[in-house]
Amino acid sequence: MSVVSETIDWLTDSVNHSGTDGIPHRLVEHLGYTAETIAIAGVIAIPVGLWIGHTGRFRGSAVALTGALRALPTLGLLTALALFVGIGLTAPLIALVVLAVPPLLAGAYAGVESVDRQTIDAARAMGMTELQILRKVEIPLALPIIVGGIRSAVLQVVATATVAAFVGLGGLGRYLIDGQAVSDYAQMAGGSVLVIAMALVLDGVFATLQALATGRQPRKQPSPA
Amino acid sequence: MSWFLDNIDMIRELFVRHAWISVLSTVIGFVIALPVGWYANEHPRLRGVAVAVVGILYTIPSIALFVLLPGILGTGFLSVVNVIVALSVYAAAVMVRSVADAFGSVSPAVLDAASAAGFSRPQRVFRVELPLAGPVLLAGIRVVSVSTVSMLSVATLIGVSNLGSLFTDGFRRDFQTEIVIGILAIVVLALVLDALLVLAGRLLMPWNRGQRTVAPRLRPLEDSLSRAVQGP
């Protein structure tokens, strides 16, 4: 039997459609971890990013931090935290939050920075307070880039949550890790197909949100050459 | 520290292995991305298609690709070929875009001048466009080199050994030192490769030395400043 048909058999086998180890449960688990991580990381990173973008302070450190975290191997962070904090959900979730922060932070500060200085000066000249400028001018204009940051963070978390199955996290990564342990290639391949499908669907959803955020904006004036 | 000294041979072996797999994948990715990116820049319509394809490739989580490739390629499950192909695909996906940007950054006036001076088309590509696109190309390779080194460590989970093996082994034996040494070794390798790339850039593009290019992020600010000075 070929690898492809074995994988299809695994995906369609009703044994895999119910229970804790069933596909629906693992899918929901994976989405749950992703939503939880993005919510926690967003509450931390987006306000900080907006503040950096608005004031221009600590911009250098933010760039350095996002660059340094990109070089950090995810599996190293996951295993180190798992040994340090102990087995359970806490360690992988901390690691996922740490990895989701850089793209969210970068999206927020780059978005605010991309707003034309003249627009901000005009808003200030009209008597808007700094908070009003942020809320009514900078955030709406920065929205497509902020959503872009959330989009990359979501993809990062979906991928890393899969790897985190190695340190005991649930979700779709279980099929890859558990399948590897018993040399069940069909299970590993099936799990991989599901992870890829989830990543593509979420990417599509956020691409649409990004397009909606862009579409709401006033058309750009042709800039003087 | 004593564990490090006792196992120095094993760590060195994994370090060398990690280095050659990362370097080879980055090089293959670049060799693919260079003509594709150049072609995409020449044909603006294809550029959109290329960027879309690249975007989809990059959406695929690396561990899923590591698992699926043996099934697609027919290679052995533990073969290092799977990992090299997967990493090359990612490297190419990221670099196609930066290569297109690099060639796009060459001023059309310079290209016209080269044609007027009697350069044939291939001469112009290799002797004018490529050297002028060099700095942006180098920036693209540096980003990919760092992320490839980091991404390779995940391949340990499917049984292809590299410095990431120190993570899985350290985790199984509940031994934090081994994991920390693994992280340090990977960061050191990324820094060494980056330094080598910068050095190669200096040797190949001596005219670029000391010249500082304006970071793209600063451009909007500069534009608005110059507009404010010159009037609309």
Question: What can you tell me about this protein's structure?
Answer:
The complex is a heterodimer of chains A (225) and B (232). Chain A has 225 residues and is an all-alpha fold. Chain A has helices spanning 3-12, 23-55, 59-71, 74-85, 90-113, 117-125, 130-163, 173-181, 185-215. Chain A has a single domain, classed as Orthogonal Bundle (MetI-like fold). Chain A is built from 9 helices and no strands. The longest helix of chain A has 34 residues, at 130-163. Chain A is elongated and about 65 Å long. With 232 residues, chain B is mainly alpha-helical. Chain B has one domain (2-230): Orthogonal Bundle (MetI-like fold), CATH 1.10.3720. Chain B contains 10 helices and no strands. Chain B has helices at residues 2-6, 8-42, 44-59, 62-73, 80-104, 108-116, 121-152, 165-172, 176-204, 219-230. Chain B is elongated, with a radius of gyration of 21 Å. The termini of chain B are far apart. The chains are: A mainly alpha (225), B mainly alpha (232). The interface between A and B is large, with 47 and 48 residues.
Summarize the model shown:
The complex is a heterodimer of chains A (225) and B (232). Chain A has 225 residues and is mainly alpha-helical. Helices cover 78% and strands 0% of the residues of chain A.
